[in-house]
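A protein record pairs a chain with a discrete description of its three-dimensional fold. The following entry can be read in just this way:
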Amino acid sequence: MRAAVLLPNVYSGLAVCVLVLHALFIVWVVFGALLTRSRPILRWLHVTSLIWGILTELLPWPCPLTLAENCFEAKAGVEPYRGGFLLHYLDQFVYPDISATVLTVAGVLVCALNLAFYARQMWSAFPSRSAK
């Protein structure tokens, strides 16, 4: 009987852990370029994260972290939210009347700007072709 009472609390705690992990991943996607200087492995990990962020925003792919959070919430007896993580939490706390389209475009733009930053770094690393 006691285990039946504790189980929803365990699932609720797991849902919160996934929520925090999800938020940290988004912070990594947005600001990761600041941490990747002279760290090639982190740079490629960040580029991969940026591409994943763009794909999950533009394509109908569910994010595994959203699925895990919703699963744990359902097992905890909480009705899982519909839609994406960003829309659910940012819309609720920061932008109460923002449309899903605006949020998606903003997310993709942030990722694209980060990728442009890396492309510029790579382009300037190559020797000038006019020096021949």
